[in-house]
Amino acid sequence: MPKLSPAPLSNNGNNTQKLRKIVMVDFKRDTAAKRVASPNDGKLKRAFAALPFFGLSVAAYWVLNASEAVPFATKMVQSRQVKWDEGSVPFRTGPFYHVVWLDNLLSVINTFFMSAIYGYDSATREQVIAFLIDGGSLLAVWWFESLRRTPGKVWFLRIPWAFALAGQLFGIGVVSPFFYFLHRVFSPAPETCAARPPTDQRQVSAILPVVVLGYLLPSGAMLFSPGLDNRQIWLFIFQLYPLFMVLAFYILSSILPSGSGSTRAANLKTTQISLFSLAALAAWSWIYTCYRGRAGEIFLPTTVPRWELPDFEGFCRQFLRWDQTFAFSSSLLWLVYLVNDLKAVGQVQAGWLRVVSFGLACLVMLGPGATVGLGWLFTEESLDPVPTKKSGKDKRSA
């Protein structure tokens, strides 16, 4: 009987170690995924974990309560004049959309922006410009999230325009944390997100032009239009920008070319281009403001808005600052939750010190809008790395 001798261990030993590492990594990742997606991790538990967002929304609703300012806004509407030390312009009350209740409502809301669009409060004007530019990144993130193939019962996560429209009425600072609360409670577990990427490349490609045409264009026109009266016309358009965005989205997503196919790689590349572009614009605005040395004066709220009354101009100044503060603080907190989910399933390996340090550096150097856009892009890239093409050697071995 021939004597059996063991095979050489020179290569097999290394292969065994590599296989053992792969198995252990997969085991840890699968175990973490099961822990995150466990049936015990029900809606009630997720709602409890998301309570900070609900608390932020309630706090924002209290701080941004504008009921006491309505009589002062109504007075401006009835006077049909916007007056400041250096001059005045007629106040446009409509008819604009030729819906009486809508024109009346928007006329009152428009009074909050008079000091910004006409610049008789320079700090408010600069803050609103930066706020609206940062909002481009925020809206793009919401819209990209809405394209995921979520279950039908969470349809409300697919209508970002509705939350943006509610933000025009109650303040985006109130609506943003509430949106994130719903997202935390009802969105699927993170390890399933990679299996639910947007499938229509035309929809992904439409988001950047939709944000530019439907949001940034009316925002810029209401602030920089050469005709003073024209600014109020654009302000009426801006108030309903979410509806114009969704209309533009459906039109553009139906006529844009689909490219080489709706692949994960193509969609991710388009997403990167969109968010890098909007983040660059937001970063430029932030750096310019900081260069002028007015960041603290412009962005930091100092008191509850209604406590400024009867100074309506002071009320608007504090209201808009708090609105921005709540909107982006909740957005940054949401990113922390997303990173924590990805760390739990092993798709983010960096430690918290590195993640937080990088985030704070971006926040200080690039501003909140760019940080939200780039931070969300980081989580999107971490969900499911785009597979690389196999080499010829790999194909032969397969």
From TrEMBL:
Membrane-spanning residues: 47-64, 99-120, 127-144, 159-183, 204-227, 233-252, 273-291, 351-378
Origin superkingdom: Eukaryota
Swiss-Prot/TrEMBL keywords: Membrane, Transmembrane, Transmembrane helix
UniProt KW Cell inner membrane keyword: no
Protein name as it appears in the record: Uncharacterized protein
